[in-house]
Amino acid sequence: MTGQILGERYEVQQQLGKKAGRRTFLARDLTTGELVVVKLLTFSSDFVWDDLKLFEREAETLKALNHPAIPRYLDYFELNSDSLKGFALVQTYIPAKTLENHLTAGRTFTDIEVKQIAKALLEILIYLHGHNPPVIHRDIKPSNILLGDRSGNRVGKLYLVDFGSVQTVAATEGGTMTVVGTYGYMPPEQFGGRGVPASDVYSLGATLIYLVTGKHPADLPQRDLRIQFEQVANVNPAFADWLRGMTEPSLDRRLSSAQEALQALEEEQLQELSVPESHTTNSILKLGKPTGSKILVTKNEDLLEIVVPPRGFELSTVFLGLFATAWNSFILFWTIGVLAAPPFVLFSLPFWGAGFFMVYQVLSALFERTRLRVDRLSISLSKQILGFKFRRLGSKRDITKLEYIPKHMAINAQGDRVQIPPQLIISVGVQKLIIWAGMSTNHPNDITVPIKSTSEIEWLAQELSDWLAIPITRVANNK
Q1: CA distances (Å), 125 to each of 140, 153, 250, 306, in order?
Q2: Quick check: is 139 catalytic?
Q3: Among candidates 114, 113, 139, 135, which has minimal Cα distance to 125?
Q4: Which of 51-60, 124-133, 315-324, 424-433 has the lowest mean pLDDT?
C-alpha cells in the first residue's frame, strides 16, 4: 500500500504492524506535511463485531485524552473503496523504538534506569486511572511502550501506545466483556474479561520483570500463579519485594493503584539511600550482594541457605607466622625434653597444644566451609573442614529477633580500646547466633564471616530479614 492515499489526505509511507483484521501504517499528512500513524480496521474474512467495538472505543478514548506521553487523536473516518472497506484512526507519530526493540537489540537497563521507567509509566497510569470513569489500558507490555533517546543521566522519554484494548469501568456495566491482553502480562482477573486499575499495575510489574531478567514472564517459572523471577533478576531485595507486590495474583494482596505503587517505590528508594545510625527496631538495610563476594545465598519459599567459603590464604598468613614460631619452639623443647628427663616432657606438652591449635586455625582458614540453613521450622549450622562436618547448632525454632551492630570501639578486660567488627545477632529462643566479620572467637555459636568490609554482613542481614519477615534492629554503639 506504499504511496496509497487514505481519506484523500494521508499518503502511506510504510507498514508498521499487522495482526488479524488490523494494520498500522506510517503516513504523511498531505495537508500539514507531518508524519502520522494510521490504524486500519478492515472488513476481512476474520472480522468480528467485537473488533469494531474496541476500535471505536480506542478512538473515543484517545479523543478524550491529553497527555504528552500518549499519542494524540487526529482523525477518524470510514474507508469505502472497491479494494478497502473499514475504518481508519489517525494519531500523532512518536519517533521512538519500543522497549521490546531495545531489548531484542541487546540493550540492558541498570537498576536506576528500570526505576526511572517504572516511575514514568506509573505517572501515566495515574493520569489514566484518574479519569471518571478510569481508563484501563489492559495491554501494557514492552512492545506497547516507546522509549526515546537518552537525555543526560535519564533513561529517555517514555510513551504508552496502542489503546486498542482499552476499557472503562462504564464499558463493562450491563454489557458483555471481551478478553484481551497478552499472556504473561495479563493478571488473573483479566482472563475473566474484566479489568480494574490494579490490572494495569500487574501488567507494568510484569513488564519490569522482563527488563530486569531479559525473559518474558511467560517463560519464567510460576508457583501459585506468582512469577518466580528472583533467581534470574539481579536486583536488591527491596525492589524485588516491590515487584512481587506489583504482580501479586490476588487483587486483595496486590498494590491496589498506580499511586500506591509509586509511593511504595519512592519510599523504597529513600530507605535505600539512608540508614539511620540510632537504635531503632524497624531500621531495614537495603542492599544487594556486594561486588566480588563469594558467599552463596540460595533461597526459595521453603528454605534459605547461606554458604560461607574458606577465608583463604590472606587471613591464614597471620596464623602461619604464629604457627611457625610455636611449632619450632615445640620441636626444640620436645627434643630437649626427650633427651633430658621425663618431667621436661610434661613441661613441653603445652607446646603440643599450641601447635595443634595453630594447625587447626590454618586448616580452618584454608578449608573451612560454613553453612547456615534456615527453614520454616528450624535453623542449623554446620562447618566442614577437609570433608569432616562439625555440627555446631542443632535445629531451633522461634527465631525472634535480628540485631545489626556496626563496627565500633570498645574497652576490653585489660582496659584497652579495641575495634569490634560488625555483627549480626540472630536470637533463637534463649540462644544467640552471631555472624561477624573477623577471625574466630571462643564463643560456641559464632560464625566467622571472612570479609574486608561491612557490606557482606549488611547484605546477609537483609537476606535474613526479607526471608524471615523480621525487621532488623540496628544498634548504635559509641565509637
Answers
A1: 10, 24, 20, 40
A2: yes
A3: 135
A4: 315-324
Among 89, 85, 259, 249, residue whose Cα is nearest residue 166:
89
Section 189-216 average pLDDT: 91
CA distance 400 to 451: 26
Tell which residue, 473, 465, 475, 405, has the closest CA to residue 238. 465
**In angstroms, rounded to a whole number, what is the distance separating the alpha carbons of residues 166 and 180?**
9
Which residue in 199, 248, 216, 195 sits closest to 142, CA to CA? 216
C-beta separation of 27 from 2 below 8 A: no
In CATH, which superfamily holds the domain spanning 97-273? Transferase(Phosphotransferase) domain 1 (1.10.510.10)
CB 79 within 8 A of CB 40: yes
Query: Would you call the peptide bond into 71 cis, given omega within 30 degrees of 0 as the criterion?
Result: no
Amino acid making up residue 238: A
Distance CA 1, CA 84 (A): 11
Decide if 423 contacts 436 (C-beta within 8 A): yes
Find, among 81, 80, 94, the residue nearest to 34 by Cα.
Answer: 94
Domain boundaries, the chain: 5-92, 97-273, 313-367, 392-474
The answer to whether the beta carbons of residues 141 and 185 sit under 8 Å apart is: yes
Least confident of 96-100, 112-116, 147-151, 378-382: 378-382
Size of the chain in residues: 479
Q: Are 73 and 91 in contact (CB under 8 A)?
A: yes
Check for a shared fold between 5-92 and 97-273: no
Q: Which residues pair with 223 in a beta bridge?
A: 226
Axis-axis angle for helices 197-213, 237-246 (nearest 10): 140
Cβ contacts of 416 within 8 Å, gap of 6 or more: none
313 pLDDT tier (thresholds 50, 70, 90): very low
Q: With both helix axes pointing from N to C terminus, report the angle between 111-129 and 258-273 in degrees, rounded to the nearest 10.
A: 150
The enclosing H or E element of 171 equals helix 169-172
The DSSP bridge partners found for residue 193 are none
pLDDT of residue 315: 43
Asked if the 5-92 domain carries CATH number 3.30.200.20, the reply is: yes
Catalytic residue among 139, 200, 446, 466: 139
Q: 207 vs 171, which has greater pLDDT?
A: 207
Global pTM value: 0.57
In single-letter form, the type of residue at position 414 comes to Q
In the structure grid, which three cell numbers stand for residue 445, read together? Answer: 555459636
Which residue in 301, 236, 246, 227 sits closest to 467, CA to CA? 301
